[in-house]
């Protein structure tokens, strides 16, 4: 599956017409007792009943309602899966959507103009015909290949996304290289070959900028014109930063996957102690953890996405002790976060993150039995998820 996205002008707020069969489905699931187990089919049936009950649902294309029910089900499923696998931290109990920005159609309810420069929505929500703007490659695909169409509101306009069913895999020749990565605050990441990739400047700049604009919002009275104006400025800034960030992590991930047969990295650790440590460190480095956090998890997703596309291996391993163990002799060398050099009695001296990156690669190779089967499966799963709708295109 591949996606492409087209911006368009005009059209009303997608959120207002999608008025959320999602939420109704979720309510229905919460209100039903455990004995009458609800599954996907029950939800889908319920969404059909909603059509008779509520006018706003009736006006929406039937497949759009179905897609909405599926979304609600996906949220419930995710919650169950997290509980079953005993995922540490929050399990993600499904939440009601209050600020929905998108509506999704499957193969009906819309019609592409033969020249594919216009799209018409045929249900009764009154969106009508939209002109597609900008650079796009939707014309290279047959209409039959388009499996889903989604309208999204962003801070700078409306977008029309197409999910296209085609095989995008491009296996690459083996390189004979393998690499382990450790993400840190000092550098964006360090690898097992001793290279460091710096945090891009805009991370820091964006953080200052965004905070300044954010403060401006609260200076104005609630509900005032000025306040809503500065909110919009804020939203556009955020969007710009997120696009820059995506561009950055995408390029880095692609380069790594292209030049290595195996990329090993740590699974996100949620343990409190680590969080606390990071917090202290952030203060020291005066660096935006939030921006970094998002960038790292995106980074991992893109690595998995490209790995799948180019038939490479992406392996997530447990992070425990990777920075404490000596990558040369395996001895435990305790050190605090502020100690940036790993020095072992065996004579091994490495930059701290490089030492960790080597351990991470070793773990992925199966050098340490506590890593694996499960981790590999988890990363493949993520790769699957990345292929579907909503994640990296
Ligand atoms: Zn050693």
Describe this structure in words.
- The protein is α+β, with helices and mostly antiparallel strands and 393 residues long.
- It has 2 domains: 2-164, no CATH class; 178-200 and 251-388, no CATH class.
- The protein is built from 11 helices and 14 strands.
- The strands form 3 sheets. It has a 7-stranded antiparallel sheet.
- Strand 3 and strand 4 form a beta hairpin.
- Helix 2 packs across helix 3 (40-53) and helix 2 (21-31) packs across helix 5.
- The longest helix is centred in the middle third of the chain and has 35 residues, at 225-259.
- Residues 1-20, 270-276 and 368-393 have low confidence and may be disordered.
- The chain binds zinc ion.
- The site of zinc ion (ZN) has 7 residues, from loops.
Task: Give the key terms.
single chain; 393 residues; alpha+beta; 2 domains; 7-stranded antiparallel β-sheet; 5-stranded mixed β-sheet; 11 helices; 14 strands; disordered N terminus; disordered C terminus; binds zinc ion
